[in-house]
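Repro:
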Amino acid sequence: MVTASVHYTAAAVSDLGRKRSTNEDAFGYSVEHGVYVVCDGMGGAAAGEVASSIAVEEIMRRLAGSSSPDSPRAEAAEAIGAANQAIHRRSLRNQKLSGMGTTMVLLIVEERRAAFLNIGDSRGYRLRQGHLEQITIDHSHVEEQVRLGRMTREEAERSPLRNIITRALGTQNQVTPDVFELETEPGDLFLLCSDGLTRELSDALLESLLRLDLSLGKLCARLVNAANKAGGHDNITCLLVRAGA
């Protein structure tokens, strides 16, 4: 049986939000190389912006700057390790950047194979046949409490501790991403986003917006506008990737 190839298109928007004076989010993608990444930096002064930029630059340089690897997943893990080392070393050299780090969600695709890799609470979703599913799992204090049955999902969304993440890129000498492997189908729509989007919009609202018959660029803008209308308390970044026949 001949399997039809899948072609991908993408668009992204990053916005300051309504409360922040700087944008510590960063993103990058290459449709040609099947690499898509969103990072949300953290740290005092401009440290978060530095950390997220280093992560995106290092990951894109390694994954979009070479020929097709034999093992995209292994190559992605190596790129994440290199980004972690680059951020960590930079923070040790400059006291003003001490302790900086970033969350990361990375999508790699090759024909009908895909994988999400994540660190922190930036998320990866898939919309298939109108149904939205969160693929990644947050590395956060409240998510751990929910999994242990100590907190409901509703309590987690209202918790003053929801900003605490338990894993970040660059804060330690080593870090391990979670990996979620997928089979893609024509029509699948993938969303990579920082928590500035998901803190403002419920999954149900995200699903209804992503069902709209709009171009990817207009969909990104609609998501960002909705998050800003809901409060825009943080930087907002969304990257959409569509699989087509």
